[in-house]
Design brief:
Metallo-beta-lactamase, Chain A, single chain, 2 domains, seven-stranded mixed beta sheet, elongated, 13-stranded antiparallel beta sheet, about 475 residues, alpha+beta, outer membrane lipoprotein receptor (LolB), chain A
């Protein structure tokens, strides 16, 4: 007996044997099933193919911590779902509506989930396996659709609990037979599902809710299905989709994970940190080795780190390397160049190590919130070793100096990459540390002209750019990049 027939038989058996009044939690699910087209019709569905257009948000990468205006326009969207097998493949084209590292050209994306294997397919056809945490999120996303979540809730092996009323909605918690947890809400009038919520871990946001709401229901092959989807991550809209076409039991194509992804070693966590140390000048070390770098600065009686990026793994390794390089002085501060998630993901680890955080003034509330957030789903360094946040802010500029070292922090004004970005200038050494506004050796440099304008406005004398991305490069290369003569 196929899985679909088994589920259908189980649902029918429950209905025949269900002479007693349904429990409140079962009633919510039964009402939703009836509104969508009936339990039998739902159980019979094999595939669902959805096409449309919409937007993707740029979570954690906007101009300020509170901004949400940066989006990618999504076109040529196609989501093919193996409903019984919980396999999905998504194809879409994203075009940024903002100045973007990779330029303004459209980018085609192909991604999917097949069992425990999440995968991406690059433009050249090469498939790679995504980390297990991302695969878990994609498995949960399968059920962010009325058809799939109600079908899962109808399964006798699912657990239903905590029925309640919230405004005009009836709400129930669903734990699927596979152990995934969701909250399902339905409209008290139409009984149609209005939203589904699942929880996940985010390095920066901690325990975070992913909520997809449904609207504009239409008749499709004996079912009621939504034509409008809106997904929020925490308080930020991260995806919208307006459906132009959807088909039940259509040819979904090959939804199996590509062999290159399936046979790849599972990625259970962040890559091990590789931290190299290069002396740039007396008392200044460039801590590199991977995609995101840091800079260690030695003062007379203490050390300061510029940037604790990415995550606990990278940040803690960089902190350990700093203490190893200069064991006789305490590491007391970390300068955060800007709030973007890949540059602030290690700040909680730095706080857990007792470091004070120096950041641009407009980011203060962001870090106060980040340090206060709960991280129970995947406890991080700060959750395991709580420390209070010690925060110092920079408006336009701030001198860090003593008898042996001077560093001036300047806000980079008018950058298309962000409004909270700090650069660090070493006047004696004629070095300039920056993140994201210029990558020496990069193929394109959309922010270089503005970066150069900021340098000239401050009358800074610079010999070398010491970047958080890329390799150390001469100031002359920045000038060429800004002039478009690279």
């Amino acid at each position: 007996m196929t899985k679909t027939k088994t589920l259908l038989a189980s649902i029918v058996a429950v209905a025949i044997g269900g002479c007693a009044r349904p429990t409140p939690e079962r009633q919510i699910v039964d009402d939703a099933a009836a509104a969508l087209g009936g339990a039998d019709r739902i159980a019979a569905v094999r595939t669902l193919v959805i096409e449309g257009s919409g937007t993707n948000g740029n979570l954690g990468q906007d101009m300020t911590p509170d901004a949400t205006g940066q989006t990618f326009a999504v076109s040529n969207y196609r989501r093919a779902i193996d409903v019984a097998g919980a396999r999905v493949r998504i194809e879409q084209t994203r075009t940024p509506n903002f100045t973007y590292f990779q330029g303004p050209q459209p980018q085609k994306q192909v991604l999917g989930i097949d069992g425990d294997v999440g995968y991406n397919v690059a433009a050249n056809g090469n498939a790679t396996r995504v980390p297990n945490a991302a695969a878990r999120d994609r498995r949960a996303e399968v059920f962010h659709h009325p058809l799939t979540i109600v079908r899962a809730a109808l399964d006798p092996a699912a657990t239903l609990s905590n029925p309640r009323t919230a405004g005009s909605e009836s709400v129930v918690d669903v734990t699927t037979s596979g152990g995934l947890g969701f909250t399902l809400a339905i409209d008290n009038g139409t009984k149609l599902p209005t939203r589904v919520v699942s929880m996940t871990d985010n390095v920066n946001l901690g325990d975070v809710a992913i909520e997809t709401s449904f609207a504009d229901y239409q008749d499709v092959s004996g079912l009621k299905l939504p034509a409008r989807f809106t997904t929020n991550t925490d308080k930020t809209t991260t995806a919208t989709l307006q459906v132009s076409k959807q088909a039940v039991d259509a040819d979904a194509g090959d939804l199996a994970a590509p062999e290159a992804a399936r046979s790849a070693t599972p990625i259970t966590g962040p890559a091990p940190a590789n931290v190299t140390a290069e002396v740039v000048a007396k008392g200044v070390w460039w801590l590199a080795g991977q995609s995101h770098h840091s800079v260690l600065v030695e003062f007379s009686d203490h050390l300061t780190l510029i940037e604790a990026p990415q995550n606990d793994t990278r940040a803690l390794a960089v902190i350990a390397k700093a203490r190893e390089l200069v064991p006789g002085k305490p590491l007391t501060h970390v300068v955060n160049t800007h709030h973007h998630f890949d540059h602030s993901g290690g700040i909680r680890a730095a706080v857990s190590e007792g470091l004070a955080v120096i950041t641009q003034k407009a980011s203060a509330a962001f870090y106060q919130d980040a340090v206060a957030r709960a991280h129970t789903i995947a406890p991080d360094a700060l959750a395991k070793n709580p420390k209070p946040l010690k925060l110092e802010t920079v408006d336009e500029e701030l001198d860090l100096k003593d008898a042996s070292m001077t560093v001036t922090l300047y806000r980079i004004a008018g950058s298309g990459h962000g409004d909270t970005i700090l650069m660090a200038y070493f006047p004696r050494e004629r070095l300039l540390v920056e993140a994201d506004v210029y990558t020496p050796g990069g193929a394109i440099a959309p922010y270089a002209e503005n970066f150069l304008e900021n340098i000239k406005k401050r009358n800074l004398r610079v010999d070398k750019i010491v970047p958080i991305h890329g390799a150390i490069g001469p100031f002359a290369d920045l000038v060429k990049a800004a002039q478009g003569t690279k």
